[in-house]
Amino acid sequence: MKPLSKTASTATFAALAALMLATRFHHFGTALNLPDASMAIFFLGGLYLRRHALFGVFAALALAIDWIAVSMLGTDPFCVTPAYSFLLPAYAVLWYGGRWYADRLQPTLTSAMGALAAAFASASLSFLVSNGAFYWLGGHHTDLSVAGQLAGAWKWGPLFVGTTMAWMLGAAVLHALYVRVLGHRMAGARA
Fold it and tell me: What average pLDDT does range 126-152 have in this prediction?
């Protein structure tokens, strides 16, 4: 897929930033709140926006939201440990997984399925980085063992990766609609 136009890039940036602002406060969602879309946002940012600097902007936005949530809104700081710094490489896995797939993305069902597979692989690896860091460096586990870490990953991984994939399915539908509308416009312009 060729890079987005400046207008489409700006609109995509704004939509992804707004989605992060709306969802980052709740990992799994509640009856009143959508589940956290951050992992999907980082993959989609790499896929559509690509620019390295924008990865830094989204990482800073995530940090700012977390800081506000913990310091001003009373969110439990349970996850704010030395392991928190490993969110940067965990999110980089997602961003650069999306960036890697960007040139392969075509307006076909096969390509869309490939994007979902790349998102799944990136989300799984990202989760293993962040979860492993939390387990080994978070200070909450006294029974540090590979078996204990794998048990925790097995417990939480499907939920984190599943949430990411739910957001990715929604993004795939929006992408298909965009391609369909754009295709009709291009066909009309040629007629």
Answer: 71
